[in-house]
Amino acid sequence: MANSLSSLRESNRRMVTEAVRRAGTLTQAQLARTTGLSPATVSTIVRELRDLGVLAITSGGGRRNAVTLAPESGLLVGIDFGHSHLRVAIGEVTRQILAERAIPIDVDASAAEGLLAAELLVDELLRSLGAQRTEILGVGLGVPGPIDPLTGILGSSTILPGWVGINPALAMGERLGLAVHVDNDANLGALAEATWGAARGRRDVAYLKIASGVGASIIIDGRVYRGASGAAGELGHITIDENGRLCRCGNRGCLETLAGGLYLTELVRATHGPGVTVTRLVELALAGDVGCRRVIGDAGRHLGVAIASLCNILNPGLVVVGGALAEAGPLLIDPILEVVRRLAIPSAAAVLSVVPGALGERAGVLGALASVQISNMESAL
Amino acid sequence: MANSLSSLRESNRRMVTEAVRRAGTLTQAQLARTTGLSPATVSTIVRELRDLGVLAITSGGGRRNAVTLAPESGLLVGIDFGHSHLRVAIGEVTRQILAERAIPIDVDASAAEGLLAAELLVDELLRSLGAQRTEILGVGLGVPGPIDPLTGILGSSTILPGWVGINPALAMGERLGLAVHVDNDANLGALAEATWGAARGRRDVAYLKIASGVGASIIIDGRVYRGASGAAGELGHITIDENGRLCRCGNRGCLETLAGGLYLTELVRATHGPGVTVTRLVELALAGDVGCRRVIGDAGRHLGVAIASLCNILNPGLVVVGGALAEAGPLLIDPILEVVRRLAIPSAAAVLSVVPGALGERAGVLGALASVQISNMESAL
DNA sequence: GGGTGTAGGTTCGGAACCTGAACATGGGAG
DNA sequence: CTCCCATGTTCAGGTTCCGAACCTACACCC
């Protein structure tokens, strides 16, 4: 705001770095075309950013240079907490994943236990790479619940009961001795899908993550929309049936009590054994089990009700469905579409696509990596 | 995009005109403070815009000049079609309303009849001002239904059955021989409330218009959010009760069948006579009629369900409730709040304010005037 | 192998833009 | 009446971007 000229330059620099981050590798000419800037301007900006250490030019044979993000000789860590799983990935700024691993965790474990498990897993992956903690440039952390944007504290409607009221970024940061960027897992999944996955290139998208719970994230004009208190996208606790089951959030008949994995597995436990997980449920359905197909279909129809509301409010052109249940593909998507076409107003339903996520269960952790990458770039300016 | 420098200048000009439009009158120093530009830049931009005929400088005594929008010696016309009313206002660019009048119209009238009535009313108001049609600079038109942003055709879920499939901007434009800007009445109401009313200064707001039908508009980052096909904000056709009454949109149990004025008046017709309108219903309730109070309270509770969904999705900080039913004040707002506090997730409910609109029934027509003003400014650049 | 065409990247001059400083002017406090 | 301050203008200076010209490397054709 102080100087409109330098803010213009900054904005153009941001455009360039963002374009490189999204594409991975570009030539300067491509950069000029995608950003709309002139080749001359791109030339100077790329040189500046190279000198600043943000970009790297791998002189890929003569004139045709490839512009990438600077490797920075450092590692990025992404951590994704789910209801029953913990996934950690270590990657480079260049988007290359070096190591990745998921382990089961105990649902009712305290936050401290979960954070310890994450710390150990990070160390284990570092060991497997022969790397040190000091090489870590940044850490991104995904949690299944809303984060208060002011305090950084995990909101009440989380899947992890032992975590309510703590500040995961601070807690994890103390353990690793690093700054940690924390966000809702749905927001991170949306970020990943919008950057590299099924929503690539879209400016306005809604992303649903259907796993143990139901989360969502709204992307408007290319950015995660967070609302007044960071609670935007809490689709899982929309009331579908005012007299329905009690939800862990304290209300009745939330979408999550009708389409969340915790509830769905409960439905088939009697017939398919007590150890059924969401993933197993999907496998059985894909293998032809009619009961499991029905359960997933019903979940899709309930999701359809909520997505129809979403359509009438925001009229998105694309809804990406991620999370473990989305692996069911058309078994889940078709019932969603059926209900949306029936309930949403026609002009909104007509333009809507509903597609499964392209990144699967890794969306969260990839989004965590992407968020560190972005915040790293921002700080380098 | 072609020239980033000139686009910067353009953006700054737009900032200046927008600031003047919102405030009405400003000195250059105030302008510099609100826009963050330097006084020197403001000086040159104001001079340019004065030469362009967009701004006027009323030299209010020596150095302390007052900058306003140029009177342009012309008139703006705002037209607002409702279910049973038609309201027309004629104003100056300086935001002053010169003449305004509302007349009842027949619900089932054809579009041609409605447009004719509007044309006659415009002429009548012009006559009362001693003005000619040639003095009209622009016309803004509000209609109670979604407008397809590509074709300009009124969508199917309109309150005016005779209007489906026509292009109101073209039709009205032919009659008046002028370019007409058309938009959803809820969008225009939101624009008016955000510019001069209860949502003044807010960047993110939701506006509900509850009259014969239920419409809504979402303002994100200061602009009306229209979605992929211009259908964003169709809150009236969110499904509240899947097995509820048939709605004119073809579905069952839409919010409108539970909170729309058409339905509410039906409820009290048996006890209070067949001629009860929404306005009369509100008057009776305010006078203490328990039946009418109950009807409005129930409508508020149903609205609360939809607004709770809206909260969980978008987490707005402010919801403005307009339209004839909003005149009931706390009789409507309190039940809304009660339900929202119960159904929305706590962190979203905590930051939400629900307030009645400040512009009353005039919001639509004022918004229509504002939209012409804006589009006029844009074209003058 | 050599010539030519094409596309990428750089450099340079020009034009537009914003800002800080200096300056003129009018109003208000004492 | 004078001083002080806020306002608005002008000017020089610095920054930014763009168009055009230029150079380089690769591909292709003969």
List strands and helices in order, with pairings.
The structure is a homodimer of 381-residue chains.
Chain A: H1 4-23, H2 28-35, H3 39-52, E1 55-58, E2 66-69, E3 75-81, E4 85-91, E5 97-104, H4 111-129, E6 136-143, H5 168-176, E7 180-184, H6 185-196, E8 205-210, E9 214-220, E10 223-225, H7 256-259, H8 261-272, H9 278-287, H10 290-314, E11 318-322, H11 330-343, H12 346-350, E12 353-356, H13 363-380
Parallel strand pairs in A: 3-6, 6-7, 8-11, 11-12
Antiparallel strand pairs in A: 1-2, 3-4, 4-5, 8-9, 9-10
Chain B binds a DNA duplex (30 and 30 nucleotides) through residues 2-6, 8-9, 12, 27-29, 37-44, 46-47, 61-65.
Give descriptors for this structure:
DNA-binding; 381 residues; alpha/beta; ROK (chains A, B); Arc Repressor Mutant, subunit A; 5-stranded mixed sheet; globular; homodimer; 3 domains; Nucleotidyltransferase, domain 5; WH_DNA-bd_sf (chains A, B)
Structural notes for this entry:
The structure is a homodimer of 381-residue chains. By secondary structure, chain A is an alpha/beta fold. The first copy, chain A, has three domains: 4-69, Arc Repressor Mutant, subunit A; 75-188 and 363-380, Nucleotidyltransferase, domain 5; 201-358, ATPase, nucleotide binding domain (Nucleotidyltransferase, domain 5), CATH 3.30.420. Chain A has helices at 4-23, 28-35, 39-52, 111-129, 168-176, 185-196, 256-259, 261-272, 278-287, 290-314, 330-343, 346-350, 363-380, and strands at residues 55-58, 66-69, 75-81, 85-91, 97-104, 136-143, 180-184, 205-210, 214-220, 223-225, 318-322, 353-356. Chain A has a five-stranded mixed β-sheet, with helices on both faces. A five-stranded mixed β-sheet of chain A has the order 10-9-8-11-12, with helices on both faces. In chain A, strands 1-2 form a two-stranded antiparallel sheet. In chain A, strand 6, helix 5 and strand 7 form a beta-alpha-beta unit. Chain A starts with a helix and ends with a helix. The mean pLDDT of chain A is 90. Chains A and B meet through helix 1, strand 9, helix 10 and helix 12 of A and helix 1, strand 9, helix 10 and helix 12 of B. Chain B binds a DNA duplex (30 and 30 nucleotides) through helix 1 and helix 3. Chains A, B: InterPro entries: ArsR-like_HTH, ATPase_NBD, ROK, WH-like_DNA-bd_sf, WH_DNA-bd_sf. Chains A, B: This is Transcriptional regulator. Chains A, B: Belongs to the ROK (NagC/XylR) family. Chains A, B: It holds the Pfam family HTH_24.
